[in-house]
Amino acid sequence: MRRARATSAAPPFFKSFTKADTKRSYLDGALYHNCPVLVAHHERRMIWPDIADTVPDILLSIGTGMNGLDNESQSTAHRTEILKGGETVTKRKRTFLPVQLAQIAADRFDRILSCNAIWSDFKTDILSQNSHVTRDSHRRHIRVNPDLRFKVPRLDAVNELDSLERATKRYLNLNRGKIKEIAHRLVASCFFFEKDVGSVRQVKEGFECTGKHIMDPAYRILTLWRFDGA
Questions:
Q1: Rounded to an integer, what distance in angstroms lies between the CA atom of residue 194 and that of residue 80?
Q2: Tens digits of per-residue pLDDT, 83-123?
Q3: Closest CA to 226 of 201, 177, 190, 199
Q4: DSSP-derived pairing of the beta strands 141-144 and 59-62
Q5: How far is the C-alpha of 100 from the C-alpha of 89, rounded, in Å?
Q6: Exposed (0-12), middle (13-18) or buried (19+): which is 182, by Cβ within 10 Å?
Q7: Which GO terms describe its biological process (predicted)?
Q8: If you ran DSSP here, which 8-state letter would residue 57 be given?
């Protein structure tokens, strides 16, 4: 519960969460990492340092929706909304969202909350460091962000959940081929090839070996053998 409150403390909708024993306050992580691809990239390099500089089988980023018709005005609206939230709190003399915090949030929204821009910057940076991955980068670094074709609802607009769901389903149906390929790649990434001992031998074209494909034990719970490719 405390983790949920800490990660959901999005101004001006929810106040910051303060942990009693440490007196540390936490805000919605989106203020700094609304598209956490850089965090994920850093973490996977730390977890698997031996392959830190290799290209992942797949890096999938899933967005929460955008308005492809009017992204710029949407950003401006969010900025205004946050500033107004800060002003409201100040008038009430509340302390959980001071003017300084509202200003910081508004200043960061133009870039930090532009998830597509963050994703584009990430891909540009990756390609500049690994020019050899340019050929199939679009197959390994994938972002799915449904174009709703209308203004993204406010965080507290629960009455718009149905229209949001319909718009997302429409986007997924229109991009069914892409979604299917992503599903196949995710399933394929759960398997690895294990060589038979002593089977590697040099041939005219390079090397050959024998072995078998094995599912990573961590994914067996997914019962992937039932996957029918639909």
A1: 56
A2: 554 444 444 444 445 555 565 555 555 554 588 888 988 98
A3: 190
A4: parallel
A5: 11
A6: middle
A7: arachidonate metabolic process; lipid catabolic process
A8: S
DSSP for 126-166 reads HHHH-GGGGGGHHHHEEEE--B-SSPPPPTT-GGGHHHHHH
Burial of 105 (0-12, 13-18, 19+ CB in 10 A): buried
Pairing between β-strand 17-18 and β-strand 211-215 as defined by DSSP bridges: unpaired
**Model confidence pTM above 0.90:** no
Residue carrying the six token digits 């691809």: 37
Least reliable range by pLDDT among 33-37, 82-86, 147-151, 173-177: 82-86
Distinct helix (H) and strand (E) counts, the chain: 9, 8
Residues in Cβ contact with 170 at an 8 Å cutoff, skipping those fewer than 6 apart: none
Reply yes or no on whether the pLDDT at 224 is more than 60. no
Pick 209 or 94 by higher pLDDT.
Answer: 209
Q: CA-CA distance, 189 to 51, in Å (whole number)? A: 15
What span, in angstroms and rounded, lies between the C-alpha atoms of 31 and 105? 7
List of long-range contacts for 164-170, beta carbons under 8 Å, 24+ apart: 164/65, 167/65, 168/65
- Asked if residue 118 lies in contact with residue 37, where contact means CB atoms within 8 angstroms, the answer is yes
